[in-house]
Amino acid sequence: FSSNTKKLINQNEVSFGVANRPFRIGIWNSHPTTGLPDTLIWESDSLSSLTISTLPIFPPVEVDGNFYTGVRQLGTLNVAFAYQLESPVRPRTFWYSSPLASTNWIDFAPAAPFRFMIEPRIQARHDLMVLSIDSAKQDDVFDYYDFDTIRPTATIYNLGATDVDTPITFVCKMFIGNLEVLSVETKDTIASGTIKQIVFDTAFVPPFTGVYRMEVYPIWAADSVKLNDSAEITFSVEYYKDVGPDFIFSPFDGEIFE
To answer: Which residues make Cβ contacts (< 8 Å) with residue 64, sequence separation at least 6?
Structure first.
């Protein structure tokens, strides 16, 4: 990638063909003479692959001129980086290292016509992201007869270059199947470059057993990057303390006594 002025990179969108494989995202300077990936200027924590991931960079990384962004495979299994066919593939653009994690860079051109699906994003003026849903959590299991309550909570990140001084609306919805069982809103502000937890003022008691889907998102017309706005998790509600007859052995159904 190239920038003719100083820019701030504050997120990367990356796609994979297989989920749940360990990796890290990196950003490298381009060597001024060879044009190869050079100094590693930023690296993420160890992550687990999803089909599509939008990964925030906090604090943002400054780039100027040519730079590279890519994936470091951490396990022995191929991380299955998603790609699009590009034929002919651009030379001196896509590289891999061999052996793994070395600085011996090999050009994909001309033999491997693949364009990796990874996109760094320049910091926008207005950009909010729901980083996580903190209550409930993914794969939580609640006991129906304990009347467990859920106080929806999420963490948001203002990736944009400007503060959000006027309170904006955040929405939390819950569904079981296609049935909406909760819709609640709250308003809040958040300064540029900060992470903040928001709590929705409700104590939700699940009305049914089953698998619930929960989503949180902002309503903000000024947000110029919509792809990272929402977060979603699933949790379940089950019977744990339910005792009843399953089968009567004697007498059998329809048995006749003299």
So the answer is: 3, 5, 6, 7
Tell me if residue 93 falls in helix, strand or coil. Answer: coil
* 3-class SS of residue 164: strand
Distance CA 126, CA 108 (A): 36
pTM reported for the whole predicted model: 0.77
Mention every residue, 6+ apart, whose C-beta is less than 8 A from residue 85.
Answer: 113, 114, 115
With contact defined as beta carbons under 8 Å apart, do 85 and 28 qualify? Answer: no
Q: CB-based burial of residue 156 (10 Å sphere; 0-12 exposed, 13-18 middle, 19+ buried)?
A: buried
Each residue's pLDDT, cut to its tens digit, for the chain (258 residues) gives 888 889 999 999 999 998 889 999 999 999 999 999 999 999 999 999 888 788 888 889 999 999 999 999 888 888 998 989 988 889 999 998 877 667 789 888 988 888 889 999 989 999 999 999 999 999 999 988 887 789 999 999 999 999 999 999 999 999 999 999 999 999 999 999 999 999 999 999 999 999 999 999 999 999 988 888 899 999 999 987 666 665 666 676 777 766
